[in-house]
Design a protein that fits this description.
This protein has about 425 residues and is mainly beta. Helices cover about 10% and strands about 40% of the residues. Strand 1 (about 85-90) and strand 2 (about 100) form a beta hairpin. It is globular.
Length: about 425
């Protein structure tokens, strides 16, 4: 940059023209570009959206890809508990609303969000400030063809609830070859979704696994199909779907690195299967040597400080494990053991827990946020004091599914649509 050129964003301070002075002069205070960007990158999204009105230069900075990634790295990936936010999905079938909790602390309040599909919006995943949502009323997506074939094409969208930007994914119809004579087409289908970021290609992907006749124990009686959506290409592609995906027991996938993870039953044991987003390959991840015997159905995966974690619940206690080095069996470390308590565990049924977040608060205390299943209650566990407390959220629904959410400026639009919107924005300014 030449000395006589102003940087793209700078602050000016000039003397007032209504009060002339003898030695009045214009004084321009310049700050280095990286300093301005660094300061703004630690601000919340709501403030940045307001600061776009300061000037066109500030607006172009805040909306630039460089700043969006800088903000995501500095603000979103900070380990401070003050920046831990949640999205709550109401799991009551009558009113499946969506709420946001901006700060998970001592005083927690939630605010209802205006979802893209109204009360029929269901969350499929959360990543980098984007929510992958679908229309929960599947009956609207069933089409009947004259040839006598049924097709299902769920309506899926990527949504940034803070910037209000929304992108509805192209339809990917599924031909239904069999259906229940009592309940119709949808009773014979089971969907499994995963949403995450491919850091190598800087792309957001949605994985959809569809099972037809999912209740059939014989692998020859059910059909598996898998498709991957790429935001960059704005299209779906069919990929390989191994037969063992039929035995996935995890309700949701867990994103660690650039791979989705599930628990599945293999023979008489349990395995972790992973899907590499970049290579589109499946592999297995070793389990830790659990010290407490527990049912296969009371184990849950999670992410703690960007590491794969596992919770194993029994009638007596709950073990929380963390894999320090990904893929290495010997790197599994037991983070803590939560003993049975009358207010935490039932006498004959394990209190099923799943790891949700690992934070460090202002007092340098390390805590782990756990969610209880199936009631989805939240629990803080203090690693230093070895105590726990239930998290109370005012205004929260009776039953809900929590998702870790980070406010960001990441756009859910594909590159071509972002270019079109950028040109329209420039024309409106001119």
């Amino acid at each position: 940059m030449q000395e006589n050129e102003n940087p793209p964003w700078f602050i000016t301070r000039q003397g007032s023209p209504s009060k002339p002075r003898g030695n009045q002069c214009s004084c321009i205070v310049k700050l280095p570009e990286d300093v301005i960007a660094h300061i703004l990158s630690y601000l919340p999204v709501k403030s940045l959206l307001l600061f776009r009105c300061v000037s066109r230069l500030w607006c172009s900075l805040i909306e630039s890809e460089y700043f969006i990634k800088l903000h995501l790295r500095n603000f979103v990936h900070d380990s401070s508990g003050a920046k831990l936010s949640l999205i709550l999905q109401d799991t009551c079938f009558s009113t499946p609303k969506i709420f946001s909790v901006t700060h998970v602390g001592s005083q927690n309040e939630c605010v209802e969000l205006r979802a893209p599909f109204g009360y029929r919006t269901r969350i499929l995943g959360s990543c980098n400030g984007l929510l992958c949502v679908c229309q929960s009323d599947m009956e609207d997506s069933v089409e009947y063809k004259r040839s006598g074939k049924y097709y299902v094409s769920p309506k899926i969208a990527l949504w940034n609830p803070l910037t209000k930007k929304l992108h509805i994914l192209p339809f990917a119809p599924i031909q239904v070859t069999t259906w229940s004579p009592l309940y119709g087409v949808l009773d014979s289908l089971e969907f499994q979704y995963a949403f995450g970021h491919d850091s190598f290609n800087d792309d957001y992907r949605v994985l959809r696994i569809v099972q037809q006749n999912p209740g059939m124990p014989d692998p020859d009686k059910f059909i598996l199909k898998a498709m991957v959506y790429s935001l960059k290409a704005n299209s779906w592609r069919e990929i390989v779907a191994p037969g063992y995906l039929h035995y996935i027991v995890s309700k949701e996938s867990v994103l660690v690195g650039d791979a989705f993870h599930w628990l599945l039953i293999q023979g008489h044991g349990l395995d972790i299967v992973a899907f590499d987003i970049q290579r589109e390959e499946y592999c297995t991840v070793p389990l830790p040597n659990l010290e407490t015997k527990s049912s296969l159905y009371y184990r849950n995966l999670g992410v703690l400080r960007q590491c794969l974690s596992l919770a194993s619940s029994s009638v007596h206690n709950v073990e929380i494990w963390v894999m320090k080095e990904y893929g290495m069996k010997d790197s599994w470390v037991k983070l803590f053991l939560l003993e049975k308590s009358s207010s935490l565990c039932y006498s004959t049924v394990p209190y099923d827990l799943a790891p949700l977040a690992y934070v460090k608060d202002n007092n340098d205390d390390h805590k782990v946020l756990l969610k209880g299943l199936p009631d989805q209650s939240l629990i803080w566990y203090d690693l230093k004091l070895k105590t726990y407390e239930h998290v109370q959220i005012h205004g929260a629904p009776w039953l809900y599914q929590p998702y870790i959410f980070v406010g960001s400026l990441v756009s859910p639009l594909p590159p071509m649509q972002k270019q079109i919107d950028g040109k329209i924005h420039q024309e409106c300014e001119n």
